[in-house]
Amino acid sequence: MQVADPKSRLWTQDELHQMAELGFFEGQRAELIEGEIMVLSPQKASHYTATDQAADLLRQHFGKGFHVRMQGPLDLGPHSEPEPDVAVVQGSRASYRTKHPKTAVLIVEVSDTTLRNDRSRKASLYARAGIADYWIINLVDRQLEVYRQPQPDVTQMYGHGYGDATTFTLGQTVSPLASPSVSLDVGDLLP
Fold first, then answer.
1. CB 3.0 to 4.6 Å from 24: which of 19, 44, 106, 162, for a disulfide?
2. CA atoms of 145 and 143, how far apart (whole Å)
């Protein structure tokens, strides 16, 4: 008799959508990360405020040809559909009536309780997807972490990481890679 260890079952986007339609996640936000369904904890007021504030600020500075999405899914393959807090994508809202974007020029995650996950799992996933500009609004330390230069990195969860990580604090400014003429005050991103 052969003995086999149990294996994890990876979920797909289609299965996640079917479960949602059946009411499995009623009143909850769920995202698919490399086949694992992550149920997100309820947002604190400061988290929602920072997300809303970042989306508003980015809408002011990214004009025609870009769409700023708040907590909308990204299609990163059959086993990954994360819902970043804010994503700046090319195109208009109408460009995504029938499908989710497959990439973004900037992703912003707001972190308080999810800081470790956003720095590791999410960073590796976004780097593997080639997201060139990934920001974490760190509510714990009241700073902005900017990750750039996605590259292969076998030490990271999904085999990719960022070659450049810079921390910005109150009083400093940052420019998105996709709009380098824009200068954003870090204080305007923190509630």
1. 19
2. 7
Q: How far is CA 67 from the centre of its chain?
A: 15
Helix (H) or strand (E) holding 171: none
Strand 29-33 and strand 36-40: the pairing is: antiparallel
Residue 170 to residue 189: CA distance in whole angstroms: 9
DSSP 131: -
User: CA 189 to CA 191: how far, in whole Å?
Assistant: 7
CA distance 179 to 159: 28
What's the pLDDT tens digit per position in 131-183? 999 999 999 999 999 999 999 999 999 999 999 999 999 999 999 999 999 99
For residue 24, the tally of other CB atoms under 10 A from its CB is 13
Give the domain 43-189 fold: tt1808, chain A (3.90.1570)
Residue 51 makes CB contacts below 8 A (sequence gap 6+) with 43, 70, 71, 85, 86, 108, 110
Residue range 6-27, pLDDT digits in tens: 778 889 999 998 998 999 888 8
